[in-house]
Amino acid sequence: MKNKGLMIVLIVVAVIAIIFGWYISTRNSLVTLDEQTSAAWSEIDNQLQRRSDLIPNLVNTVKGYAKHESDVFNNVAEARSKLAGAATVEEKADGYNQMQSALGRLLAIAENYPELKSNTNFQALQDELAGTENRISVARKRYNDSVRTFNTKIKVFPSSIVAGNMGFEKKSYFEIADSARAVPQVQF
């Protein structure tokens, strides 16, 4: 009888230890995924800032050739300001989409100015911008993959219990507007 009571106590302790171990493991997993998502977002933010830093140089180069295109320059400046002031993923995505549109119009201006197209500074800035856009694309994919993994983890049972207790909430994807999906046709 004494052995049976001891056995029950040991089983209860073992079950509690297993549940506690699972809880800690799941908690650590969620924290790790949350941090990975934050790091992936930081990379997008870095690349958006890099692009934002390139834009004034590109605008100034184009301004030298196309002084009468002030509406386009104002649109680029407004889009850049909106992107710089964005705080959430949704605001950044919206700012990104507006910037894409404004940059498309800015680069379309160059079609009318053969001297601008042959300007080495303009070409170098355009190459830098293209490289940055590629980095943004890669960073956006990594971020969205990280968000998908995190969101899945907080939704599936039984880790959803731990996620709910810790206050983890679904993260937003960095999505582009449908209009930005079309590749602009710019010929130089």
**What's the multimeric state?**
single chain
C-alpha end-to-end distance: 91 Å
- Radius of gyration equals 25 Å
Enter the CATH topology name: de novo design (two linked rop proteins)
Number of strands: 0
The stretches of 5 or more residues where confidence is low (pLDDT under 50) are 183-188
The biggest beta sheet reads: none
* Mean pLDDT, all residues: 84
Structural class: mainly alpha
The sequence of SSEs as H and E is: HHHHHHH
CATH homologous superfamily title: LemA-like domain
Count of discrete structural domains:
1
Tell me roughly what share of residues is in helical segments: over 70%
Which architecture would the CATH scheme give at its second level?
Up-down Bundle
Q: Which strand-content bin applies to the residues?
A: under 5%
Name of the CATH class: Mainly Alpha
Coarse morphology? rod-shaped
Q: Given the structure, what is the number of helices?
A: 7
